[in-house]
Design a protein that fits this description.
Blueprint lengths: L16 E12 L2 E13 L5 E2 L2 H13 L20
Antiparallel strand pairs: 1-2, 2-3
Bound molecules: zinc ion.
InterPro entries: Znf_MqsA-type
Organism: Candidatus Brocadia fulgida
Protein name: YgiT-type zinc finger domain protein
Length: 85
Amino acid sequence: MVKEYKYSDCFYCGGAVAEQLTHREIRWKGKLFIFENVPVGVCTQCGEKVIKPAVAKAIDQLLQEEKKPTKIIQVPVYQYESNIV
Ligand SMILES: [Zn+2]
């Protein structure tokens, strides 16, 4: 079960912070990892995001254990060419 976590007011603007499920992109050891449905506190005023320590730790652990991902997606990569403008 997820324990209720009380976010402190926004560090920047003092606004209330509400939790939302969102995805996070994390680069680790030179690779890109995407975590879906991550509970993140988002300031209702300025949109600043706060991640609670337990969530950050859980993500760290997943990366370190190199657990099998739910799925693997391909990411298109473009080389920007200056003649495209
Ligand atoms: Zn704020």
